[in-house]
Input
Amino acid sequence: MSDDQQGSVKLPQRLLPIPASISPQAQAALRRMVNGDGVPVNALHAMPAPDEREGWQRVKAGADAWYAANLGDGLAAVRAGVETIAAGSATIHVARPARPIAADCALIDLHGGALVFGGGDACRASTRLQADQYGLTCYGVDYRMPPEHPYPAALDDCLAAYRHVLERHAPARIAIAGRSAGGNLAAALLLRARDEGLPLPAAVVLLSPEADLTESGDSFALNQLADVVLPGSLMANNLLYADGADLAHRYLSPLFGDFAPGFPPAFLQSGTRDLFLSNTVRMHRALRGAGIDAELHVFEAMPHGGFMGAPEDEELVREVALFLRARLGIQSNPS
Output
């Protein structure tokens, strides 16, 4: 055993059963993501090397086709209207709920997708869904992505969108939310906005944030393949996005930023099988260590991104809604 492996724990070959401690719907979701040999279906698909631009174009086209085939499933009951606008470099989908709970409040939503996928129609649909779920005007930032637009294009777009929202809403009535890659951008946006002297919002929601592009946390080893949604490293995506920039810089890996003073109260979520569990718990500890009010929600056996509609996912939406109402000063639940 090499020096850098000394003290490592050797695990025997094993099967990881689906636990009875989660809902039947969540158990079914985990079963759907594993093939007959017990291998996560998503583990069968490798990302191209960072310099294989044509390969990335093909993967992005495949992802767009998947989103298009699945977008309608969760949108039939969504009533929020949406328009698409431009604000500086940013494309923003603005969705307004049919029954807003606070007309002067705004939620800036930053979509997931491994810093490469999830834009366009998928972002537009997600913006409508967030507006409906939380009863808030939602600004979904359709940020530019690699390979055509590497760092800092996405962060530039997020900052342009934030400036746009600040012109229309008081900071105390704004929250920012990001999932996965969007969680990276949400935290990085706050660090950069503070660096540029902008007022910070009332709250931030970080759902399994990709807060460390160096992938230095324990769960990148421990939950590899246990996470059926995200079974392995995204380093190829990270290098493509960074385009030669230092992965440990706070604008690329906000986990390594300085959160005091002024970082807003935070809601963080992950699952015990999430590859990004370490990102989330380390971010929570970093925020708490800086004196920031931060709450952590870890769900039993949940992989990255949730169970695709199980009761646990509905519980998470309710928890986020409670957090947003409290932090935005909304006194009553929607009727």
About this structure: The first helix runs from residue 24 to 32. The mean pLDDT is 95. Residues 143 and 204 are 18 Å apart (CA to CA). The beta strands are 81-87, 90-96, 106-110, 137-141, 174-179, 203-207, 266-271, 294-299.
